[in-house]
Amino acid sequence: MANSSKSTTKTTTTKHIVESAKKRPLARLNTILPWILIVGSIIATLAAVVITQEKFDLASNPHYQPICDLNPIISCGSVMQTKQAHAFGFMNPFIGLVGFPIVLTIGVAMLAGARFKRWFWQGMQIGLTLGIIFAYWLLFESVYRIHALCPWCLTVDVVLTVMFWYATLFNFYNGNLSLPASLKSTGRFVKQHHLDLLIVWFVVVIAVILQHFWYYFGQHI
Q1: What is the pLDDT of residues 42-94, one digit of tens each?
Q2: Measured between alpha carbons, how far is residue 109 from residues 21, 35, 113, 160 in Å?
């Protein structure tokens, strides 16, 4: 009888450890995501402010040279004077000046203990998804159409990618978004290698940019 009791206790303890191990990544993500949103939004907002100020200075003085005009490739001025810089009829940074403070507020609210409904997170997911699509469309245009890069825009791309990635993981693992049964194993792999996959993504993007502009960088590195 004593052995049976010990066996039951051992089984219960093992089950508890396994369940705790499964929940631990979610707990870390719930703790880390607010900081990702806060720090990321602050950086992106500052970048949007700088781009906006540089654009105003350039508009008021055609001979003004933005501080991030470093060479023919790393050139904010070249990007600012294109139609892509006003994709919706106004300066693109205005979108960031409105959107990123909202994300910042959400991050601060989470840090203070706020809990949001499922529909709220789904709405945020839509917003971040549209943002990442727009950001990478601009990156594509910069590389293959404009043939110049804006460092501040690249900063926003990096920050937005990190926020999108971890907000998406947060939504899937907290049930705000559902994952098809056929992709459950893929989901487990992503959960275990989320940082590795993010690093690989950035390495691929950097490699594509370097490959395209190697005619310049190859002579100056």
Answers
A1: 999 999 999 999 989 888 888 888 888 899 999 988 899 899 999 999 999 99
A2: 27, 11, 6, 19
pTM beyond 0.70:
yes
Residue 125 lies in a domain: yes
Give a yes or no: residue 16 inside a domain: no
Domain count, the chain: 1
Residue 206 within a domain: yes
Could you tell me the CATH number of the domain that includes residue 110?
Answer: 1.20.1440.130
Model confidence pLDDT, tens digit, residues 123-182: 999 999 999 999 999 999 999 999 999 999 999 999 999 999 999 999 998 889 988 888
The answer to whether residue 83 sits within a structural domain is yes
Name the amino acid, one letter, at 184: K
Q: Please give the residue range of the domain that contains residue 180.
A: 33-220
